[in-house]
Input
Amino acid sequence: MKESGTRYSNALLAALPKTDLHCHLDGSLRIETLIELARERSVALPSETESGLRELVFKDQYRDLPDYLHGFAYTCAVLSDEEALERVAYELGQDCLGEGVRYLEVRFAPHLHVRDGLDIATVLSAVDRGLDRVRREHEATPGVAQEGEPPFRYGLICCAMRMFTSGFGPYFRDLLQVLPQWPVKEVYGIASVSLARTVVDARDRLGLPIVGFDLAGAESGHPAHDHAEAYAYCHQHFLKKTVHAGEAYGPESIFEAITLLSADRIGHGTHLYAHEQVEVEDPHRYVRQLSEYIADRRILIEVCITSNMQTMPDLRRVQDHPLGRMVADRLSVTLCTDNRLISQTTVTNELRRVVDAFDLTPAELRNMILHGFKRSFFPGSYKEKRAYVRKIIDCYDRIALQHGLPQVERGHL
Output
């Protein structure tokens, strides 16, 4: 018999140490900061009030994915200089800590922020400064400095784009003009290879905590194999890899991410079990073998419940999300926000929805949270990561005990 989700109080879910491994910087601004930055940088918004923007842009529900993505036109427009990037990164770190997120991997496409005098390395450095300030401030608190609480840690994930147009920003506009003789799909691959080389150099030469490479953008019609060379470069230089896959396309997109891009993790993976989207002789067997492979290899799926429900009309209830089946199949999954502003959510809110919908047992809840720490792209040595995860586990068990949760046997993961 499973424990009812109502056993988990909001106070407990907020207090537990958590990760957010799939969090887009440009989708996670504070709305008041967006308004202020837009005013200072002469960026026109549909409304200059929080209520107006929530009615017109950042809504509770969206018609479809394009409607969901509309808000990025405004957030990317204001993230056009070092000061804005550093401030937004700092505030994101503060917001994460405020709800118990002790480890954050923030992802963004550096190309979207490149301007005259603002190159990729400068963009990455500005975001790092903001998050590092949060780290240093938190380490100075009594809880960390004197009482041994887990410190705040973070890593940067750089996103290549499956496709782009000149409207994506100056970098992509210039690239399309400079390489007119190439087929557009090859230009996408060239941009990804260029980004991979640049971010590996920034990690190694500047010491920035760049921990992963991602592929984002329109999935259908823009296959992963166009970016295989970029992922091969990351693989050769020990940069870990995640891929947006199975969000707007079927299981074959996830298969490509794993087999052609050597993905260590999958972003979303929502259509993992969608056998009706697979064009093979036995689609049910294909899906079963794919999910078994993911489970056996411990390939983490970064699940974003609220975001999926806002962009997929067939997900009318949380219970309709395949997360329940993923948990039952013992896949490695963890909950993420995707976009804290666009989806108006937090990790704590995602946990609330999931424990209520699927009646997670204490062991399932513990596994889901600790998977995030164990499968993270931690920006340190393996020994440092093990020590950090050990501290997190001890903290989790201590808080769970204080809130009256049954103790879970160690080694249950």
Observations:
- The mean pLDDT is 91.
- The radius of gyration is 21 Å.
- Residues 5-30+85-402 form a domain with the TIM Barrel fold (CATH 3.20.20.140).
